[in-house]
Amino acid sequence: MNRDNGSTAAGQAASVGAHIVRQDVQSMHAYALQPSAGMIKLDAMENPHRLSPALQCELGKRLGALALNRYPGERVDELRRGLAAYARMPDGFDIVLGNGSDELISLIAMACDVPGACLLAPLPGFVMYEMSARLQGLKFVGVPLTPDFELDEGAMLAAIAEHRPSIIYLAYPNNPTANLWDDRVIDAIIEAAPGLVVMDEAYQPFASRSYSQRIARHGHVLLMRTLSKFGLAGARIGYLIGPRALVAEIDKVRPPYNISVLNCEAALFALEHEAVFTAQAEDLREQRARVQAALASLGKVKNWPSDANMVLVRVPDAQKTFDGMKARGVLVKNVSKMHPLLANCLRLTIGTADENSQMLAAFEASL
User: Residues 221, 309: one domain?
Assistant: First the structure.
């Protein structure tokens, strides 16, 4: 195709898109990934540990023997049972799988899209809560946290009373603040909720406590987790646990075959080697304590307690520090413009011991 034809086609596509694509979608920005080639990648809360060569070989043989010519089948049900056992799912509850937690968040919004429905979540929080609401045409209500990133009980209860949300998301721990919230306030929110409450435990492997053993007390609380932080970010497996009748309704809007045979087998393999991933999580918790102690020794920064594999820090100039670290080959996340409460804040993912040493050196040099 010559350049003129290419320009004509592009112009026609833009013209057609402007008329048929929703206006709110046109005003959105696609989820952006930071280029990370050749850098120490500490921007996405990934588990930095890889499988040993022996386990890589074992997993490779299993994946190579799969029937890729067939749609996913009963092995997916085996994964559901394995995850239910891992999470100690209560009696009378069921589990649905998603292509990561992101898909589950979209499915919940889709299933609960009734006239006048709205979705409520504390801010700052995981961006996909608001994005899923907007894409589904639901109203989104964000309730600011306190300056110390705690739940504002009065504001949350007032927003619930005013907006009567169909869905409330409570990340436990929260992203990007990394903290767990007061269980008494969470119980008050659950008691006041007129619809679903989704406890998002994406960072459960690193947290000091879980809500999983309390979900059986309620008929409107769902527990959402992912294997991304467990150590399988590339496999894209999320799971949602809740009362069987509720999960059955959400499962109706799930696309068929949404979990590939490759992802399913990798997840089953990981559950069989749970002890390996548990040891990795323990190492990251120890490294988190080391990073926090080092940050506390620096006079120019503030860091908050963390129950996740990340640490939130406030620096004098977030952009300057971010740019300096990047120039030194360390990529972190600049969250300073995500919300006013995050002014001059960076989010540092916890890496290996060597990565953390290089990250701390680059951080101090870039302040």
Answer: no
Q: What is the pLDDT of residues 213-256, one digit of tens each?
A: 899 999 999 999 999 999 999 999 999 999 999 999 999 999 99
Residues 81 and 217 in one domain: yes
The CA distances from residue 40 to 46, 172, 287, 354, in Å, are 12, 27, 16, 10
Residue 119 shares a structural domain with residue 147: yes
Which residue matches tokens 């009567």? 164
Considering 243, 272, 301, which residue would you say is the last residue of a domain? Answer: 272
DSSP SS3 for 333: strand
In a 13 Å sphere around the CA of 178, the CA atoms on its Cβ side amount to: 25
Strands of the chain, DSSP E = 40-41, 93-98, 118-123, 139-144, 167-171, 196-200, 221-226, 238-243, 302-303, 310-314, 330-331, 333-334, 345-349
Asked whether residue 113 falls in the same domain as residue 221, the answer is: yes
Print the domain residue range for 309.
Answer: 20-49+276-366
What's the domain count of the chain?
2
| 145 in Cβ contact with 152 (< 8 Å) | yes
Q: What angle do CA 300, 302, 308 make, to 5 degrees?
A: 140
Count of beta carbons in the 10 Å neighbourhood of residue 364: 17
Percent of the chain with pLDDT over 70: 94
In whole angstroms, give the CA distance from residue 110 to residue 181: 28
Among 106, 102, 176, CA closest to 134: 106
Show the tokens assigned to 257.
Answer: 């075959």
Long-range contacts of 320-327 (CB under 8 A, 24+ apart): 320/366, 321/346, 321/363, 321/366, 321/367, 322/346, 322/366, 323/366, 324/362, 324/365, 324/366, 324/367, 325/359, 325/362, 325/363, 325/366, 326/39, 327/366
pTM metric for this prediction: 0.91
Interatomic CA distance for residues 238 and 96, integer angstroms:
9
285 and 263 part of one domain: no
Beta strands in 24-108 (DSSP E): 40-41, 93-98
Please give the distance of CA 74 from its chain centroid, rounded to a whole number.
27
